Known about the structure:
The chain is α+β, with helices and mostly antiparallel strands. It contains 9 helices and 6 strands; from the N terminus they run E-E-E-H-H-E-H-E-E-H-H-H-H-H-H. Helices cover 38% and strands 6% of the residues.
Amino acid sequence: xxxxxxxxxxxxxxxxxxxxxxxxNTSAAADPAPTPTPTPTLTPTPTPVATRRAVxxxxxxxSPDDSLLVGNGLYTAGKVRGVRCVLPGTAPKDNAGIVxxxxxxxxxxxxxxxxLVPRADVEFTPAALVPFGSGGCDPAVDADDRGAYYDxxxxxxxxxxxxxxxxxxxWRTIRxxxxxxxxYGHHLQTLTGIxxxxxxxxxxxxxxxxxxxxxxxxxxxxxxxxxLGAERKPLGLTGDRLDTFYYFVTxxxxxxxxxxxxxxxxxxxxxxxxxxxxxxxxxxxxxxFTAPPKRVS
Length: 297
């Protein structure tokens, strides 16, 4: 991972943890959160927090569901298509502006992935963007005040715009880009059968379930980064904005929420899979289900 130290804001890590995934809604990892300062400063190194590690197992294709995990056709579908996604230079901070920004981004994600999904021998269905409180998402889940989650039953990314509105403009832009692209990664997993692990691939030990969940979440972030890498120029992911992106993906992880079970992956591994996806812009880099346990801790 490149050594990125020139940022316009210093950040401290706080918890924006959205909870563990369920068969019907999934959410992103615990994010790093910014504290703006009036003058540029070097990025501080966060105080390390011990990562709780579960007993690790290696996933092997012992059932049709595992075959979908380790040999999914999406991995060999080719590079993500560039669609010249046109968004405002900085994400707005008002309700209507954030929702409009998010819908445009989800439309770009749909256009970019639409040619690849059929190569996995499944039909492509576009994802929808549904703001919290609009009636299309689970109101009980909306009340959790999470930033966004994916609802598998609705093929929808459910967005809590207000959690982004309070953030500094540059950070808000990166967090929206990554969060929505990550939740779209769960849409891809649903379309291609990867999400069926929740229905038919349950393992008898809790540690095994946590490892599978981390593999799934890290993969969603890798898919997200593949899209962002394909669109790096149109989305302006250069210079300070690229620095902020690298900081974000290398500081989002289970360490930020030590009170929760380690179900999304460490900061180190979140950065590892995000960099692979971003540099290749290809889902071939995102097969977390054949990775050794140390890469999905």
